[in-house]
Fold these 4 entries.
Entry 1:
Amino acid sequence: MPWEPVGNHPNLNERTQHLLKVLVERYIRDGQPVGSRTLARDAGLDLSPATIRNVMADLEDLGYLQSPHTSAGRVPTARGYRLFIDALLNVPPLDHREVEILRRRIDQPVQNSAELARTVSDLLSGVTRLAGIVMVPRRNVVTLRHVEFLPLSENRVLVVLVLNAQEVQNRIIQTRRPYSAVELNQAAQYLNGQFAGKGIQQVRETLLRDLRETRDNLDRLMQTVVEMAEQTFEIDPVGEDYVVAGQTHLMQCADLSDLDTLRQLFEAFNHKSDLLHLFDQCLHADGVQIFIGEEAGSSVLQGCSVVTAPYTVEGQVLGVLGVIGPTRMAYDRVIPVVEVTARLLAAALNDQD
Amino acid sequence: MPWEPVGNHPNLNERTQHLLKVLVERYIRDGQPVGSRTLARDAGLDLSPATIRNVMADLEDLGYLQSPHTSAGRVPTARGYRLFIDALLNVPPLDHREVEILRRRIDQPVQNSAELARTVSDLLSGVTRLAGIVMVPRRNVVTLRHVEFLPLSENRVLVVLVLNAQEVQNRIIQTRRPYSAVELNQAAQYLNGQFAGKGIQQVRETLLRDLRETRDNLDRLMQTVVEMAEQTFEIDPVGEDYVVAGQTHLMQCADLSDLDTLRQLFEAFNHKSDLLHLFDQCLHADGVQIFIGEEAGSSVLQGCSVVTAPYTVEGQVLGVLGVIGPTRMAYDRVIPVVEVTARLLAAALNDQD
DNA sequence: CTTGGCACTCTGAGGCCGAGAGTGCCAACC
DNA sequence: GGTTGGCACTCTCGGCCTCAGAGTGCCAAG
């Protein structure tokens, strides 16, 4: 099992487990509390409702089920979902044709990783009819490919950085004195000649540590180089961020119909820090991970589940993707979709480099 | 008045207009249908409720008011809001201190126009507690500042374009044959030397029309230049787009509490084409424009109003910004905020160039 | 034209009732 | 001892009624 079992569950009767499984499946399908009569019919065990009732009462005592009120059926608790997912759920592999459809949509040519993230996020949300999320983390190793300096006005210079395979970043820096286009060009040429293909961490260290202290002895070119480099490589250039798509799907699922809950959830999407924290945790677990309700650590995720998977290229984790939806979601379908999408995205990134 | 009067309204009694004004103001404040007794108290005219009732009945006949049901008070119709905004509303200028606060938030240094759009959009939504929108349109005149080609793999080249003041664009193009870094560099140098500062339209025409037909006679460098340029300047590089912020505010206003309406609205934000169409219309009206409900041309905007203003630099319209909220919004506050924000954004862009 | 009076209408909250669904418990059964 | 049918009990939900409150429209008088 790719997701780690969290709760520790006392031994449950084979039959009891089966009944829990059927109940959860039924509830995920219908969204209605499941009564003993219904469960008796569905379970295929040839037991009377009365027997079922006894089992259900036990499951309620153990915290796997609860009833909304006396005379409704039962509904799984978070603990119930947990056991279901850890031990009872069987996840069918995705149909070949479906994999193909996913592959085709991911393999379309894109301009940059942000656009790819958006595409994949759209895809996840479209296929699952939930909210899709793709995170692009801060990479540990960022390779400098090319740098360019353009004078904007008196003391402002536009820096264009090409990183990794094809990531383009630009920023504006303030300089201590005006630089001519020629000076800037020479500085860029020097940096490109010297450091293209090197890790940006390494560039920073080599350049700044070695040269800064001897600044006064440097010729004019190298002084330019140092001043530019100081600001260019100052902060880690690839920020950690994510892309959400299909939030509106969440407005359609009956479970989250409470407007206020929904608003808080949407605000969390914009706020980002909570979710980034969650995804950071997933970065180094391999395979699909599932968080049920407040297991995710944030109270705004009440009633929601998060299904995530990291994607890796050459063993290095590049990011996490996943979906957010109501806890009552079709895990048997969502899990393989998330899993396969992560693999396909990894493959696409691999080809691209 | 900056917004254009749309409906043509028959002569209304001075007193009748005053009563409509007070009613709309009251309704905007409370959100409750206004009855004759309330209006009589609020209007300050020393009239009895019975008289007010007669006037209200007239206004209803003329289509300015309606009652939700027999024994509720009256509510303005779209037509009523229209008249209110066109002729009755007085818009107080924004407080100096408030303008200063806005200015300070807009004048913060930013990296590129997309980031600025986001900042301003956030600002609009924060100040008005509605959804803020900033559109960056396709500019008519796009100036090439700098171009750079980097070989990625066999037949793929990364193009980095610096446009206008500081806009950086990048795209990947497929080439017919592999090019070396040196070749690409020469081609870029040629283009920069020849065309930096020129309009991109002009570059395209000059280069492609004049040279393409004589391709066979060109030297190797110029052949490279032509192939690169063909794809680099093929499509209009600055896409029309907008940024929405603070959508969640719309979930809090009682008027739009219908989940389904809200969902459709949010989907419209993602879909973009409807709203882009609307904003295109605003591009060349000067000053604040207001669309009430379906005046905006899209049925998803039922119950919503849109307040927009274009922002210009040196007489050239650069884009449109505005807010979307329930029709029952505090126009006397929203209008000056939108107006001032547009001016401040224009000023900020002007300084930046 | 304005006003007070008055009958009328409609909503919304609260209370009541009955149907339906499901439970818990118990005694009987295998 | 696990399983079962029976049965009383509880709770929700929709329909129905009622009543107070708010606001209207109309009319006749000022």
Entry 2:
Amino acid sequence: MTAPDIDPLSKRRLKMWIRLLGVARAAESSLREYLRVEHGTTLPRFDVMAALYRRRDGATMSELSRMLLVSNGNATAVVDRLEKDGLVRRTASETDRRTVYVALTPEGLRQFERLAADHEREINALFSDLSEQDVEQVTALLKRMGKGDKA
Amino acid sequence: MTAPDIDPLSKRRLKMWIRLLGVARAAESSLREYLRVEHGTTLPRFDVMAALYRRRDGATMSELSRMLLVSNGNATAVVDRLEKDGLVRRTASETDRRTVYVALTPEGLRQFERLAADHEREINALFSDLSEQDVEQVTALLKRMGKGDKA
DNA sequence: TTCGAATATTTTGAACTTGAAATATTAAAA
DNA sequence: TTTTAATATTTCAAGTTCAAAATATTCGAA
């Protein structure tokens, strides 16, 4: 039904995207299940904690949602739940009363470190078919894909 | 002579995954916004319609959720809304009263064909930095990654 | 045939996600 | 100074997502 394609590359890019999405979703599914069954937590919670682990001194809500590519409201909701569970702490900024800093609590830090090792093992198993060269190649190509980000 | 490998393959696979997830999420964000602004629809709706387009004769709910890697309940909800909007039709199976077939209505088909062309253009633009060789390489590598799917 | 396992779908409750609107605050401009 | 624009976060409503439970039905085995 669609008109004959003058630019077959376009179709190939589409196929590539569909495959990329498929791989990402399948791996996410696996991870989600792993986190739920083995650690009683969820991927969004893990993502927030991982971001806060990288920013040990704390990050603002805005930084957090930018790092994770999620909306502000979303970040607020997940942080609310983590805070209620004592894994994360909000601190008001001294210099700008609009700003809130979020950081892992000691308990949050302990829990995340337990999670992180298992998470890496799980990822490693999921992609165990790829050789070192494959991994480097994919990483390099993905790096180039991420460059033109305007959003 | 060479430095000891302080960055084993496991860590590289993890980095690759983080980058893969980043690229996928950024592209999904773009698509989501595009579908919302230009077509007043959402990615899940598009995904369902795309699956039904590939299965023009209709698919069961189970097939649908398997194709899209989403839960049954999720598929039910999205199909409910599409049905309410007249884009999709449920039909009871003659031979198995448990089974329901879902298919695009003529209006759903028309709308999807309008969407699909634009969607392809959008994807093509998102990954315009990649040469044909790049695209083939990524596709091939992703194909290998998807092999070990046990879920 | 009847019972129990397996299959197909929907329902349910909670968490997640979004975009937009509402608040509060800061910074800049007139 | 006063007003306006920009920034940071939360709240809100609607939609998405999940896993588990509930229904309904089919199928296989005793």
Entry 3:
Amino acid sequence: MAKPLPVLEPPAVDCCAPLTEAPLTPEQADVLARRLKALADPVRLRLVSILLASPGQEACTCDLVGPLGLAQPTVSHHLKKLAEAGIVTGDRRGVWTHYRVSTEAITALLAMLSPLR
Amino acid sequence: MAKPLPVLEPPAVDCCAPLTEAPLTPEQADVLARRLKALADPVRLRLVSILLASPGQEACTCDLVGPLGLAQPTVSHHLKKLAEAGIVTGDRRGVWTHYRVSTEAITALLAMLSPLR
DNA sequence: GTTCAATATCGACGAACGTCGATATCTCCA
DNA sequence: TGGAGATATCGACGTTCGTCGATATTGAAC
């Protein structure tokens, strides 16, 4: 658990600064890169899309292992990465941990990226 | 030069499929992840933002080395990564190579990502 | 042709990453 | 209390990545 990255809330980056006029500071670039890295993996992208396509837009770890074709610890590892970046949230209900996508986080990420367009 | 990634054009991914209903295929996830990885680096994010903030929204390698504080081969390396992903284009004018951001590529990337929101 | 400046490639190094098996933790239920 | 199933953590392995110095390539100008 190296990098807790403020969960969810629009990140510490001044996300709406006129990116086309002033370059990102190294610190802003670090925060943005950390969030992008969390999503820039084929397995984690599939995880997010599977979650969104699941009934109620949520699923437990056990439901994700099969479709991905990976070992259970590997899936837990990826879910942890996504959770650290605030992209998914997991809550334990009995034996199962139900994960769902934080659409706010995705929206915030898109908002940070769109000035680059 | 391992992965030429079709330059620019909206990638081979069916980018507008209802991502919330059908999960990404492993192949779609690979293409999307490769593009995101190109951008998911603090140095490359700063490169893109510096280019956009430059006069005429373009700059040569020599103008980028100083602001980044990295060695020239390192900057060339990152520019190559961005170019392979179609995020920037470079054209040689005499001794200088002028790089500029492909706003189409950024737009395409955002379009692929927005269904996750 | 030779020289010089801008850029790209190469080779090496340490750090970070994705994956897995083994194991620990947690929760329910008998 | 104890057992079983779901999940998380740990330790190790090979791979990829970011960085740099050294070197090669390119193009302009003399």
Entry 4:
Amino acid sequence: MSLRIALLGLLSAVGPASGYDLAKKFEHSLNHVWQAGHTQIYPELVKMAADGLVEAEAEGARGRKTYTITAEGKRELHEWLAEHDPSMTIRSEPALQAFLLPLLDDPDQAIKVVERIRARYLARLEQLDCLPAEGSFGRYALSLGRAQVRTGLAWAEETLADLRKRRTPQ
Amino acid sequence: MSLRIALLGLLSAVGPASGYDLAKKFEHSLNHVWQAGHTQIYPELVKMAADGLVEAEAEGARGRKTYTITAEGKRELHEWLAEHDPSMTIRSEPALQAFLLPLLDDPDQAIKVVERIRARYLARLEQLDCLPAEGSFGRYALSLGRAQVRTGLAWAEETLADLRKRRTPQ
DNA sequence: ATGTTCATGTAAGGCGTTACATGATTCA
DNA sequence: TGAATCATGTAACGCCTTACATGAACAT
């Protein structure tokens, strides 16, 4: 259901757009919040049009279809935002690897794992830092996303220090 | 694939266990890292047994089946931990709501949304604080999980302060 | 002419959620 | 006897990923 909401939110924020545009926006502005590729977005827009949440406008150059949010779509969006209790479901592969770390007897191996996690967080942080302020629309989510990644990075640094201390007790 | 890994990790850490046990462990120790209910776990264990990663032992009382990790299972687990580049895929409903906040013109409405997010993070933090040290097996993941939740909570507090300032400019 | 970007889709298969369904054991 | 807990599963449906497939327009 949240994919719909994300699409409605983008349409509401940036105005009419094609599936292609929305896929780009996803990558550049919602990336740290929700993920979806064009193969998920195109069919979903068709369903949303069938449900009256968006309207497909006349095709333009290169088969381009422009979608616009409807009043009904805006209503659904606002209702979700105002009423929906956000689920705390989490599936984090870095955290799963962190969970499994004690299985590695060799501290050097554990260090390698954490170094890889650290590199991933770092790359992600750089990616977020390059995001355009973008009319500052996504500012709240961006500050949350950045903080979360920085937290992951800090955890990695601390854990590395800890593991290195254990490796060389003296 | 990660569900398998999580199950192999638990079996490796706590020894032979039933699907029921594993579902409980999931809830009490992997909760902030990965989520899965018994309806996902039971069929997965059957598949894993077919793939030779675990062995189902004789049935006990009340139809209980005990699973043990095999050498092949341990190999897969260690390989994943050592080689797998963790995916950064994230789908966070709180963050999606944060993203959409600027759509609300009324600051009071925005405040309500953030207050609900804050309450959810707070509840989650209390839940984590009640977790048993549990032989401290999940210690690294727990510290990461706690830090992540605290970050979300801090974001909510800051955002509330910011929104309240905007509401009453004087 | 060739490569890149724009633009759209389908299909198969796996992962995840919710609802449904059953029955034994233990404790009050 | 009745309620709670232990213990297992199936089915339907929806969400997500990966791979496949097509073609127009534009820049070099």
